[in-house]
Amino acid sequence: MLAEPKLKTFQELITNASREELIWMNGFLAGLVLGESHGNGVEVAPPGLKVNKISVLFGTETGNSKKLATEFAAKAKKAGVNVKLSGLDQYRLNDLPKEEYLFIVMSTQGDGEPPATAKKFYDHIFQNKLSLNKLKFGVLALGDTSYPLFCKAGEDVDHQLLKLGASRIVPLQKCDTDYTEEANAWFFQVLNVLADGNGNVPVPAASKKHKHKKNYSGIVISNTNLNDTGSGKQTHHIELAIEDGADYEPGDSIGIVPHNKKDIVTNILALAGADGESQIDYKGERISLKQILGNRLNIVHLPERVVKKYSTIVKQEIPDTRIDLLDLLRIYPVKDESQFEKVLEILEPIVPRLYSVSSSPEAHSGEVHITVALDKFNVNAEEKFGLCSEYLSKIEEETELEFYVHKNLQFKLPAPERDVIMIGPGTGIAPFRSFIAQRDATGASGRNWLFFGDQHFTSDFLYQTEIQNWVQTGVLSNVSLAFSRDQQWKVYVQHKMLEHSKEFWSWLSGGAYLYVCGAKEPMSKDVENTLLLIISRQGGKSEADALAYLEQLKDEGRYLKDVY
Ligand SMILES: Cc1cc2nc3c(=O)[nH]c(=O)nc-3n(C[C@H](O)[C@H](O)[C@H](O)COP(=O)(O)OP(=O)(O)OC[C@H]3O[C@@H](n4cnc5c(N)ncnc54)[C@H](O)[C@@H]3O)c2cc1C
Ligand SMILES: Cc1cc2nc3c(=O)[nH]c(=O)nc-3n(C[C@H](O)[C@H](O)[C@H](O)COP(=O)(O)O)c2cc1C
Q1: Among 77, 326, 374, 378, which residue is least crowded by beta carbons within 10 Å?
Q2: What is the Å distance from ligand 2's center to 143 Cα?
Q3: pLDDT of residue 12
């Protein structure tokens, strides 16, 4: 393949090379080939390029992007590059036009959206007419192929930077949850592009441990409604016996893909005139149509993008709205079976739902527990339920349930001697049951303070007996309860924080770690505003200084949120 004299030069090069040099050359060539094969207009850096300063920014929800950005920054520093590492939320947007080399590691959340910490940056580049002609950049996008809009937010940022005049010097790399290998290859590629051509780029060590999104199987041991008679809510405590290897830590959650309701599947098949037993090829498997509609494809609350495609197939005008497949088939019927087959092709997979683990590996060995609130809402005055929470609320003992462990690298317990304040109303209690049980089982010496709230003391005090036991045994030093509807005025956890301002501040200023879990809106916002008030009043700080103090808490990893 290689003609003389290139072959001779090549042989000379490899004959005299050390093993290390051979590995380096191998990686370098792989990087070059990868760059070309993406066809993304990649500029491969000319040898001799000297880059001494880069910025590495990350946008994360559960810490994976931060971890990778930090690893990349360390590698770049080792290669002699000056690195500014920062979260996208901390980044000064005015610096963007001044940047020369910028690398972004970010995940996708929601339905193809940027993580909350990247939102400000994302909006900034989309809403402003920026000129970024000086900027050279690369994006490493984290995502999960179980979601229909895989790595969409990272992809958006990559495209938008290009649109604003910046030069993409490495192709966009999208990574699934088993990101280690792809991320390492991308780091290596970036370092090669930045290299000064003298070969002083570190050779990536073969990855020792790959993180795969592995599905585990659990058997439902129990499913108990924690709310008592008279409650307007249903919160299910579900215990699973799990197989070996399904390791988790307090603060992690598990992902579950719910099944669709059987009667809806039957009605869909009837309306489409299709045979549920007919076998279909789906993602390399041959399975029945009934099974695909039952537990693979999303058939409820279809996103507008799917409804649009449906409208094209049936050649009928359909308003831009979210709607169930059953209603679509009723109102805008398919003509025949072949049209229905086309409809099957446009349906997206059922996305997993996450549930915070409420058990502790130390206290509940061989089990994983979750705390699931039945999601109720009204559509045209008809009461409806969320797909997964309803599926789980009805799940019977002995049922086999598949799940995966979603690691949260940030929402983790501190050293045993540190004090911990936990604010978790409603299902926000889940990770804190895990935290407290773990601290109890491991004899952690730090103090624990729990803030819990719900509607009524008598019917909605989740895990009441356990919490009271922990108070009696001294595991919980403080418990502050807020039952919003037991008096004429509403009482929430933030009111309890304020009531105990002095002690709260004494814990916080004494180095306590503060955790918040549960509803993002309005709970976590109200809690944060109250926190700022306490810092300002008790700490004698101006509004600006209180904000700076809060940022410092975040930087130190002492203010952590897991809100949804
Ligand atoms: C990190 C993390 C941890 C979490 N931990 C917990 C936990 O510990 N406990 C817990 O209970 N939850 C937890 N959640 C939330 C959980 O993942 C689910 O989002 C929740 O259970 C709702 O899912 P669902 O399938 O029941 O509802 P979905 O079917 O997904 O519906 C969600 C919403 O979509 C709308 N909707 C759905 N269908 C229709 C329709 N046909 N018409 C109109 N509107 C519709 C409604 O507004 C509904 O409320 C967590 C989430 C995250 C991200
Ligand atoms: C609620 C939720 C929604 C998600 N939505 C998407 C999505 O639309 N597209 C995607 O590719 N990944 C999606 N993901 C997967 C995350 O991007 C993936 O787990 C990533 O590794 C998280 O990285 P982080 O810890 O840096 O946030 C979603 C994850 C969660 C928890």
Answers
A1: 378
A2: 5
A3: 73
| Rounded-to-integer distance, Cα 12 and Cα 100, Å | 37
pLDDT band of residue 132 (cuts 50, 70, 90) is very high
For 93-108, the pLDDT digits (tens) are 999 999 999 999 999 9
pLDDT for the residue 185: 93
Q: Are 153 and 107 in contact (CB under 8 A)?
A: yes
pLDDT range class, residue 9, cuts 50, 70, 90: confident
What count of other Cβ atoms lies within 10 Å of the Cβ of residue 319?
A: 8
Q: Which residues line ligand 1 (CB under 6 A)?
A: 253, 300-301, 324, 353-356, 371-373, 375, 377, 379, 384, 386-389, 427, 430, 562, 564
Mean pLDDT of 405-433: 97
Q: Is pLDDT of 333 > 80?
A: yes
Residue 267 is inside which H or E element, if any? Answer: helix 262-272
CB of 227 sitting under 6 A from ligand 2:
no
* 388 CA closest ligand 1 atom index: 25
Per-residue pLDDT of 206-227, as tens digits, reads: 333 334 578 999 999 999 999 9
Distance of CA 505 to the CA centre of its chain: 31
pLDDT at position 245: 85
The Cα–Cα gap between 530 and 445 comes to 28
Structure token digits, residue 245: 């290897």
CATH placement of domain 420-563 = 3.40.50.80
Average pLDDT along the chain: 91
- The verdict on domain 262-346 having CATH code 1.20.990.10 is yes
| Strand 367-373 with 235-242, pairing | antiparallel
Q: Classify the complex by whether its ipTM is higher than 0.90, answering yes or no.
A: yes
Same fold: 17-194 with 420-563 = yes
Q: Does domain 216-257+352-406 have CATH number 2.40.30.10?
A: yes
Angle at 259 between CA 562 and CA 231, to 5 degrees: 60
Distances in Å between the alpha carbon of 362 and those of 250, 352, 425?
Answer: 10, 27, 24
CA gap 26, 31 in Å, rounded: 9
Report the nearest-CA residue for atom 6 of ligand 2.
109
Level-2 CATH architecture, domain 17-194: 3-Layer(aba) Sandwich (3.40)
Task: Kindly list the domain boundaries of the chain, sorted by start residue.
Answer: 17-194, 216-257+352-406, 262-346, 420-563
What is the rounded distance in angstroms from the CA atom of residue 154 to the CA atom of residue 158? Answer: 6
